[in-house]
What does this fold into?
Amino acid sequence: MATFNVPTRDEVSENNKFIFDSLEKGIGFVPNIYAVYAYSDTALGDYLAFQNRKTSLTGKEKEIVNLVVSEVNGCAYCKSAHTAVGKMNGFSDDQVLEIRSGKASFDPKLDALARFVKDAAVNRSQSSAELVGNLIAAGYTKENLVDTIMVIGDKTVSNYLHGATQVAIDFPAVPELETELA
It folds into this structure.
């Protein structure tokens, strides 16, 4: 397997240096997965625009999508990163573990979202009509459905990038799910 080091600011294009500086100022560091996008002159900016696009989903709802998709795709990096972000959005450790399993029994609306996302990610675009209906019945709109699928796509890109590069995880490690939760 090829080794992918995390590029430093001095090793990236001028455009990416500006983005690195913005990330450093905004969040205090450049996450390794973002730095890997900077192997391309345009991918980091494109990805951040995609990830930060205006959406009808709340921060908590986006984190449900991120956690479920990362679990389905087996991305240790994104599971670790989004566990930290999920906690910043108010989820407890136990809630994060349950969300990763594709459920959110603590909130019926979020549960419908988690179950739909797991189904969509596992079945690679062949979502169950029943789970789509449950999502709408729980109070989500067609706009929310479209935005959910956009976040599924966004997270899948990072999952695949980490899967190919295996760059070091720079967030606290998270436990694997117990069999009964998966």
